[in-house]
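User: I'm curious what two different proteins look like when written out as structure tokens. Can you demonstrate?

Assistant: Sure. I'll show them one after the other, since each token string lines up with its own sequence. Here's the first protein:
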Amino acid sequence: MGSAERMKVAASICAEQIRQRPVVTVVSAMSKVTDLLLDTLRKAEGDDQAALEANLKQLEDRHVITCAELLPADRQPAVLEQVHAIIDDFRRIAQGIMMLGERPPRSVDEAVAVGERLSACLVAAYLESVGIPAQAVNAAQVVVTDAVFGNATPLMEATRQKANNVLRPLIDSGVLPVVTGFNGATPDGRPTTLGRGGSDFSASILAAALDASELWIWTDVDGIMTADPRLVPNAVVLPEVTYAEAAELAYNGAKVLHPRTLAPLIEKGIPVWSKNSFALDKPGTKILPSVNAPSGPRAVTSMANVALVSIEPDSAELSATLIMSRALAALAQANAELLALTSSSYRQSFCFLIRRDELPHAMAALETAFALELAHGYMKPFDVDENVGLLAVVGEGMRGTPGLAGRIFTAISRERVNIIAIAQGSSELTIAIVVRREGLEKAVRAVHDECGLGKTPAASSKL
């Protein structure tokens, strides 16, 4: 969705499919627009009127130019009126934030959904111009969520009712609904968002609510790969993966899917295709409840923007279990996702890994939760290490495979990369390993090669 040309490609995919079966499409904002919106809100909070106006002009210019590139001249005035109305909504929110001097989470959620609203307006108008009946739909009218602003969770039964009331009549009349991704609203109508990168999550919510036969997610990569090809040149696309494998890969850094995308689909077993909109001929990856795959790992993924937080009591009188429980409650209150957790029984210390952008809120919540213990020296100051990276080895076939962990650790040690922490769940689906940031890429390549996941030189020479 980065340009008028990409919008035309997206529309052509929709047009091809709607000639064969009913379709609902979910769109994201144009590339970098969400970042621009957030920056504008920060400028408003800082009372920087000049910067706010400059950003608003940039937002307007980009969508006006895109409109001109997408549509014939006679269709542009009506669409530009809608574009200006949506931008005026954003301006109103930004001016309100400037007056307050702060960014209320509810206002931020309403504001950042503007990018998707603009995209939906333009894509629906283009489809109409090429003879495909279409209508832009704000997901706030359809997707019902809780009130966790910035990272809301869908309320599926209420969403199902609204989807059938709002979208089903359009589908039945042959109109293609173009729904905004990433956003929703509480039952009483307060705007919410589903977290960054949440448009694919929006699509899965609607797929489940409408009992879809399939969900197709179009990205800029060929599918789910055995590793990030920027780190591992011989990585290959996996033709099929399970829901569990795809979810673990997304949660641990693979950028093909939003981490929560698959949750609404599991109960109904709706298959998902991950495909490349820049290479329509590529088969992509199909995500299913189960697949026939060889034993051992399927893929290696990694995350660099993480932080390791260590907590250690300084008094034997403190219950380590109670401290861990309170720490996890504080992280939940800060809405921080726990990527890995390890503990030491003797010293009653433990450490956990979170995303670096969640660190400020997480630390504020922890310091509030343990203010008394820290003030009186019952706990050591929290240790935060941001010079770390996460490597995760994923595969349903790893269950019960003897010697696998040893091979993985040996492969990492051969690269002289030190392992800081290890975590593995009872399902044996994922082995999470924390290493120094400077050794992360070497460790990923070493594990990928050790597990035989990529193209062999012989296979590459035949291509």
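Here's a second, unrelated protein for contrast:
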Amino acid sequence: MELLEKLRNTYPDATCELEYGNDFELLISVILSAQCTDKRVNIVTRELFKAYNTPSDFADIDISVLERYIKSCGLYKNKAANIKACCKELVEKYNGQVPQTMDELITLPGVGRKTANVMLSVAFGKPAIAVDTHVFRVAHRLGLSDGKTPNDVEKDLCAVFEPQDYRQVHFLLIRHGRDCCHSRKPDCGECAVKEHCAQYAAYPSD
């Protein structure tokens, strides 16, 4: 597909920008990344994972201690409660291992379909496309989906692209959304795929 090739050429290094040492650390990082930048999450987890880096550690941590570590990520009270509950469930139900199926992952506190898809794709190498705000926005602007919900957009993207490309598509659309196709003022003049954009004419150039 021409669109995919242009995105690949534009962002040859597009990949997961979260720093993690194993699938459990990735799970915690993805939960923390909700409405927060990967850069900020990485700053937080560099210190957090030095002190706590197993499900048992987080299941036993005092909630106020966890909140202090993650406060700068935003929504820290909800995230702390979800992380602690999630880790307790990992210990009690999964012997401290992160499950590897969608049905199991989405039962964990703090884990929705987007987080589960990141885990399936990045941690476990399974074909999955996680739809965050960047992917949702870019998919609509490029005419890849007119879905009203992230689940609808996910289905549309999975129908457009080949399963072996799902992981890369996720990272490419995120990167394009962060670097060029901004929410309020997209940089259309620098866009490598503007001829594919369903909304290009709506954004006058400076």
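A detail about the second structure: Residues 2-14+129-202 form a domain with the Endonuclease Iii, domain 2 fold (CATH 1.10.1670.10).
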